[in-house]
Amino acid sequence: MATSSLPPLNSLRVFEITAKQMNMQQAAAILHVTPAAVSKQIQLLEQYLGTPLFARSHRRLQLTPAGEKYYAHVSTALNSIRHATREASQQAESKALKIRAYTTFAMYWLIPRLTSFHSLFPDINIELTTSLRWVDFDTENVDAAIRLGDGNWPGLIALPLIPNILTAVCSPALSKTLHTLDDLKKTTLLHTLARSDDWQHWLASQGKKDFDAFHHRSYESSVLVYQAAMRGQGVGIAQKALVLPLIERGDLVYAFPHELDMKSYTYYFVMPGNRPISPDLQAFHDWLINRAEVSG
């Protein structure tokens, strides 16, 4: 190997993601390749360098001392390339603010309020995408995101937005059959896969820890739970701030008056801490925080 030459660039990218995940199957899923393809690229890089980068034992991966040192350099270099690419592309074309959110949050909270932002800042273009996946600011072209969690994410700026208050909702017709919590045992509970413990938390807050309902159905996102509940297919667990438009329209009603505030486990506006905040992003940030304060 000539000391001035570069290793295979694809192998570097595979190595970085594998070292970050410490799991070849997860790395393969991110790269949309097979675990065998990931393993082959790692082997090519190790052969090129003449030293092992991972210590393999059973199903666990661990970086060797040489691998840890190499990962630190490779990660820094690739992040530098990503940032340089982002800056160059921003100068070459009109920049849109790329915001990531959850589908339900975007539909029922953010989009209804964006009209005021566009009126205040007509020259700022918002590119809004939705996903349940956690955003990786190092590898994805995203400026900021709205994420649910405890806000403790090292390297990120996380600002709380709205309270995460859990409540049970159902169709007006179904509500007439519900008088006590025990009536839930005779109906179907609608769950969101992304927050599979919400029903458990809500019931436990009322002393119902081992609650056996008649039936359970699960959906990918809350918007699907709300649609099923509107059609009388069961009682859904909802986030009050997001379901409120459907309550106000009369499509859904509160099944019971009890609410559970999840405190710090709520929605946050998240930005990478290692990037300068552009004037457009600062304007969106200030507007969003103001809208969140107004909505309570």
From TrEMBL:
Q: Which GO terms describe its biological process?
A: DNA-templated transcription
Gene Ontology terms, MF aspect: DNA-binding transcription factor activity; sequence-specific DNA binding
Q: Which Pfam families match?
A: HTH_1 (PF00126), LysR_substrate (PF03466)
Cross-referenced SUPFAM superfamilies, in alphabetical order?
Periplasmic binding protein-like II, Winged helix' DNA-binding domain
Swiss-Prot/TrEMBL keywords: DNA-binding, Transcription, Transcription regulation
Does Transcription count among this protein's keywords? yes
CDD domains with a match to the protein in the record: PBP2_GcdR_TrpI_HvrB_AmpR_like
Q: Where is the HTH lysR-type domain?
A: 7-64
Q: Does the keyword Ligase apply?
A: no
Give the domain of life: Bacteria
> Which NCBIfam families does the entry mention?
PRK11139.1
Entry's family note: Belongs to the LysR transcriptional regulatory family.
The record's annotation in PANTHER family points to: HTH-TYPE TRANSCRIPTIONAL REGULATOR, HTH-TYPE TRANSCRIPTIONAL REGULATOR TRPI
Question: What is the official name of this protein in its record?
Answer: LysR family glycine cleavage system transcriptional activator
Taxonomic lineage from the root: Bacteria, Pseudomonadati, Pseudomonadota, Betaproteobacteria, Burkholderiales
